[in-house]
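Q: Please design a sequence for this.
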């Protein structure tokens, strides 16, 4: 399975995917890493792993449609079959999302459908949540919606700051994103009607 990863920043989830794809028992290869930021450290992670990289800077485009079109051109030129959004902070057009329907997944730092959007850890703490977590899901036009693939849950502890909680969640992200890629690469996932998995078991 040829995978394309799109990032904007540090790329710790990208690194987890790189490490997983390097395992001989996983039939997945990361063929291209695209960043909308030239300074994203994730590009360095890709280069170190010998993976092709490309910067497609949204600031150099007049509109979202032309930016997204160049994303698809680059992905298809690299023969990408599955797109993984990993810390990618741009909203994608419906056209792009529908073009890659059921061939594009994302990791979001909350137990979707709760806490769509940004600052999820801060919001969970302020709401007095007992648990928080992360979700791998298929991307649909509406932000942070779409069929859930895997979730991991962590406790919210006394004295947690958003940063502490984010760190606890990120550790789980690095587990469930590669696991989701594995399930897709091994053909274990159908999309519609998939029961959400919680900690690796049907939810
Ligand atoms: C993290 O907050 C993660 O929860 C979300 O994007 C942010 C950066 O991730 N998916 P990464 O280290 O760039 O993968």
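A: Design:
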């Amino acid at each position: 399975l040829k995978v394309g990863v799109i990032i904007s920043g540090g790329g710790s989830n990208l690194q987890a995917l790189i490490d997983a794809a390097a395992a001989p028992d996983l039939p997945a290869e990361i063929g291209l890493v695209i960043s909308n930021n030239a300074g994203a450290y994730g590009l360095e992670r890709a280069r170190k792993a010998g993976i092709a990289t490309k910067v497609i800077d949204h600031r150099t485009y007049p509109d979202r449609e032309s930016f997204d079109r160049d994303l698809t051109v680059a992905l298809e030129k690299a023969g990408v079959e599955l797109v993984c959004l990993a810390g990618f902070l741009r909203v994608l057009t419906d056209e792009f999302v529908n073009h890659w329907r059921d061939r594009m997944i994302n990791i979001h730092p909350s137990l979707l459908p709760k806490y769509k959007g940004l600052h999820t850890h801060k919001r969970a703490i302020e709401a007095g949540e007992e648990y928080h977590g992360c979700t791998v899901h298929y991307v649909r036009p509406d932000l942070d919606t779409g069929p859930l693939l895997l979730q991991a849950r962590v406790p919210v502890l006394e004295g947690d700051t958003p940063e502490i909680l984010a760190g606890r969640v990120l550790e789980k992200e690095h587990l469930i994103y590669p696991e989701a890629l594995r399930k897709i690469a091994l053909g274990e996932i159908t999309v519609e009607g998939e029961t959400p998995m919680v900690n690796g078991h049907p939810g």
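Q: Thanks. Anything notable?
A: The longest helix spans residues 162-185. The longest strand covers residues 131-138.
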